[in-house]
Amino acid sequence: MTASVILDVRDTIALVTLNRPDRLNALNFDLIDRLTAMLEILEADPGVRAVILTGAGDRAFSAGADIHEFATRIAGGADVAVRDFVRRGQAMTARLEAFPKPVIGAINGLAFGGGCEITEAVHLAVASDRASFAKPEIRLGMPPTFGGTQRLPRLVGRKRGLELLLTGDPFPATRALEIGLVNAVVPHHDLLDQARALADRVIRHSSASVAAVLGAVARGLNVPITEGLRIESDQFARLVPTTDLREGLAAWIGRRPPAFTGR
Hints:
Layout: E1 5-10, E2 13-18, H1 29-44, E3 50-55, E4 60-62, H2 67-74, H3 78-97, E5 103-107, E6 110-112, H4 114-121, E7 124-128, E8 132-134, H5 148-156, H6 158-167, E9 171-172, H7 173-179, E10 184-186, H8 191-203, H9 207-220, H10 225-239, H11 243-254
């Protein structure tokens, strides 16, 4: 059986590929579980500094949840559907959002439903000019369940988010860029190179300071600003004794490139 998630690590960057191209990389339970387990491995690997997440084939990043599999859980009732489907998907997107290393989505095609929710959860995203997005769950008679009702309005604004959630209409990569869902739109053939270039711009910095920024933003977005400022202060305090902070300051004063070690 072909693995539903493929890993390729090169030069401290892990390329993770959703690998069900015949099903438009639909998110079945196996794929979700494998992706979540792979994130555990990548977090613990000191040789990995950043993760790029993309989809296999030229048609889709991910067309969303595997509806055939999901329908079997709906037939089992609300408790079963929430336990097996909703909690599983929400745990995956929460893990991506809180991951302590930068996760960059390379959106190579359709990003519908759960595929769009992954795009919302990752830290940064580069989209192919062939990519398209949609929140089509309402057409099934349900809201998004992997965090889309919460993250999308926070990312793009309440009224823009509600328009996308309530209509289910698809929108192109240029619109995703305009509303802040992705960071850039690039020619399809340049997608992975551009995603790697973005990763390189991040991982040239201290890994400890990158993790601090990611942690402060992830934890601070959904709390009052006074609590968010305490989170920011705590993240800074953890870095005060580090070698990297002393090196960064010395390099700045000495007008030379820093030599960060991750300590």
